[in-house]
Design a protein that fits this description.
The complex is a heterodimer. Chain A has 6 helices and 11 strands. Chain A is of the alpha/beta class. The chains are: A alpha/beta, B mainly alpha. At the A-B interface, strand 7, helix 2 and helix 4 of A face helix 20 and helix 21 of B.
């Protein structure tokens, strides 16, 4: 098993105050890591550091064996890391239809235009949104919107997906069906998932390992019970 | 942040907005500063402060209750009254001055203060209404449970106060920069000279840029004193009231106060815009100078019908006045439209880049203040600065062309779309841009494909604002030769030297084009415009 993400004494600071780390962490390829902890403990900051959206203060971050930040320097910007991310509020572009959203991402992933229509169809089918091509986010339910966000995150074929409490606004039934779908896709594509959540129960059936954070540090890092899958 | 975009936008704004300021500053020498604090200059400063203070007080007294009533209560017709109030701001104050000075014998300082107060009240009303719009129903309900209506007002007032003060500061700035109103008021009655027309006179008589700049330095300081708090208050107002799951509260029921409230709103709108427009329609429908002469006599105390024989108003006279007006000014009208449309089209992309920079970059608050600097420079001085920069052998062709007018308008008015963009970007979740970034979208494309379309209503409103301000631009352009062939310049000259029914028709034509973007928006605009918080 190879290492998908590696943090060495990585930290993030706001002004002179360190809000995350320094911490060491390794996530194996194909692993589903769940990060839990109280509000403000640094879970989202950890994801943003890995994504390249938060500026590091020290240490190093490597993704797929390539060092992407060293000390306070960003060696590889967020847009070049090839990571998929699901945001808490979906962060869907309100002026674009489902098809346009996915085409926009495919275009920037270097996929030839001729292949767009086919790929868009596949992605929408993957997240069970067939027939939603012309729908805009404003006309979709919370669950549909998050499925579109998942399709968008998968569009550029990433090996690593970061989930920042994306299921929080959904009801329990939708959350569990969405998690099951994410799990299926992970296994099909051998993806690495880092999933920040405030509700460990929601993902315990699928997780390989649980990281508990407190005050910007890792309090415990334990393998989960053998998954039910 | 897309570096080439930012550098290009900064370079263009530096050329249009800051080069004239620097050019002026370089022309001041120590001898020019001798008169800086003499009695005459201090007298001017006093009168200018009186004008700005008086106008902004009237603007607050009318605008704050108006904004509250149309945004938060069940006053009848609030949806119509709210946009109609903006007409008073869109109308050139010179038009309000000529109509009200014909209808009343108000002259001198009270006239200038009253007219500019009426002109600027929509700014305060707009800011107040927007601030009330952003108060969440949950907050109001919590206050209501805690202590009824009094608790609601005590909770809401601190939230809207920054917006009211911000509007008042901007009203002050608009009033002290206006050249045409005090100039016209002085031409029909007691002399009331303020900085703007004094700088104009100094420059015309002595052609001394240094003296003109030096004499206005106290005004620049005063403008900065108003501008910086206005911008800071604007940001505070926005932050204080933006919520996550926003829900608009139910309108407050006015009960027996509903009719007086409606009367107040209708009266304000009527006095500020409907009477001036009505008066122009009346003047345009009576041939020659009869209506104007009658108005002047009436304002001068000659009210007997026998002394002021006036022909009757007719539609055919109105049509003929419009034909004459169009015949006289077709080229100037075309020039104005081309310049104003172009200024808007150039200003909006620059505003998108710089407005986004102000909101997202570190130190954005300081950048915003820096970008607003051209607003603190008296308009007339900005015009002189443009002459100083471009009136030389190398740029002579540009100096004589309409390009200079467009450049001047972009430099003067870019701050308005820029503020609209920062307001809209502030209400836009940064996650939208981050999601695009994670998908590998480059910075420039995030701006054009994610931010731009999402803040499109603000960009359109910004374009309309620049168009309107550029169409009626006189205060800075009056000294620039190439601006002599614009519709507003023609109106200004004809009002002073040969006002007749055709001039009234000309004023109405200008009003029509000024209102056109708003009319088009109300017919075709589907989404609500995101505006300054």
């Amino acid at each position: 098993m190879s290492v998908a993400v590696q943090l060495r004494a990585a930290s993030v600071a706001v002004g002179s105050k360190t809000i995350l780390g320094p911490l060491d962490l390794e996530v194996q390829k194909g692993e589903h890591l769940v990060v839990i902890g109280p509000s403000g403990c640094g879970k989202t900051t950890l994801l943003r550091l890995i994504a390249g959206l938060a500026r590091p203060a020290g240490g190093s971050v490597a993704i797929g064996g390539q060092t992407v930040s060293e000390g306070a320097r960003l060696l590889v910007p967020a847009e070049k890391r090839g990571i998929g991310m699901l945001f808490q509020d979906g962060a869907l572009w309100p002026h674009m239809t489902c098809a346009k959203t996915l085409e926009f991402v495919l275009h920037h992933a270097g996929i030839p235009r001729a292949e767009h229509a086919g790929r868009v169809g596949e992605l929408l089918e993957l997240v069970e949104l067939q027939g939603f091509d012309k729908r805009k986010p404003g006309t979709m339910s919370g669950g549909e919107a998050q499925r579109l966000a998942l399709a968008r995150a998968l569009a550029c074929n990433p090996e690593l997906i970061l989930l920042d409490e994306p299921l929080g606004p959904l009801d329990a039934g939708l959350r569990s069906s969405m998690l099951a779908r994410i799990d299926e896709i992970q296994r099909e594509r051998d993806l690495t998932l880092i999933h920040v959540t405030h509700d460990p129960a929601e993902s315990e059936a699928y997780t390989d390992r649980t990281l508990v954070m407190e005050a910007g540090r890792i309090r415990s890092d334990l393998p989960s019970e053998p998954p039910s899958r | 942040m897309s570096r080439p975009f930012v550098i290009t936008a900064l370079a263009l704004y530096a050329l249009a907005g800051f080069a004239p300021i620097v050019a002026m500053a370089l022309r001041v020498d120590l001898s020019d500063l001798e008169t800086l604090l003499d009695e005459r200059t201090l007298g001017l400063l006093g009168r200018t402060v009186m004008l700005g203070g008086g106008a902004s007080t009237i603007a607050v007294l009318l605008g704050a209750p108006f904004g509250f009533l149309v945004a938060r209560t069940n006053v009848p017709g609030a949806r119509v009254l709210r946009p109609v109030a903006l007409v008073a701001l869109i109308l050139p104050p010179l038009f309000v001055a000529i109509t009200w000075s014909a209808l009343t014998n108000l002259r001198g300082a009270p006239a200038a203060i009253g007219i500019l107060g009426l002109h600027t009240f929509p700014i305060v009303a707009f800011f107040t209404a927007t601030a009330f719009d952003r108060i969440d129903a949950g907050r109001q309900e919590a206050a209501q449970l805690a202590g009824g209506l009094r608790a609601v007002l005590r909770m809401e007032l601190p939230l809207v106060l920054p917006a009211i003060l911000c509007g008042a500061c901007l009203a002050f700035l608009f009033a002290i920069n206006d050249f045409a109103t005090p100039d016209y008021i002085s031409s029909v009655g007691t002399k009331f000279n303020v900085y703007a027309d004094e700088v104009f006179a100094n420059y015309q008589l002595q052609e001394s840029t240094g003296r003109a700049v030096a004499s206005s330095l106290p005004l620049v300081a005063l403008s900065l004193l108003m501008l910086v708090p206005a911008l800071l208050l604007r940001r505070r107002g926005a932050l204080a009231t933006v919520g996550g799951n926003f829900k608009r509260p139910a309108p407050l029921r006015l009960g027996a106060w509903r009719a007086p409230a409606l009367l107040f709103c209708v009266a304000v709108v009527t006095v500020g815009s409907l009477i001036p427009i009505g008066r122009l329609l009346y003047e345009a429908g009576i041939p020659g100078r009869q209506a104007i002469q009658a108005g002047n006599d009436l304002a001068g105390g000659l009210s007997s019908p026998s002394q002021v024989p006036v022909g009757s108003w007719s539609l055919s006279s109105l049509q003929s006045a419009f034909s004459v007006a169009l015949e006289r000014t077709r080229t100037d009208l075309g020039n104005s439209l081309i310049y104003s449309v172009s200024a808007g089209l150039i200003a909006v992309p620059i505003a998108l880049v710089l407005g986004h920079l102000c909101q997202r970059a570190r130190g954005g608050r300081l950048l915003e203040i820096l970008f607003a600097l051209p607003m603190a420079v008296p308009a007339i001085l900005f015009g002189i600065g443009n002459i100083a920069v471009w009136n030389n052998a190398v740029t002579a062709d540009f100096y004589d062309s309409g390009g200079l007018v467009v450049m001047l308008e972009v430099g003067r008015f870019l701050i308005f779309p820029l503020l609209l963009v920062t307001g809209a970007v502030a209400s836009l979740s940064p996650r939208l841009e981050e999601a695009a970034r994670m998908a590998g979208v480059p910075a420039w494309k995030r701006l054009t494909h994610v931010v731009g379309p999402t803040v499109l209503p603000s960009l359109l409103a910004g374009w309309a604002l620049v168009f309107v301000l550029a169409m009626r631009e006189l205060d800075a352009a009056i000294l620039v030769p190439s601006a002599n062939h614009t519709i507003i310049f023609r109106v200004f000259n004809q009002i002073h030297f040969g006002r007749d029914d055709a001039v009234a028709a000309l004023c109405l034509l200008v009003v029509f084009f000024l209102l056109l973007p708003g009319l088009l928006w109300s017919f075709f605009g589907r989404r609500r415009t995101e505006v300054m918080p």
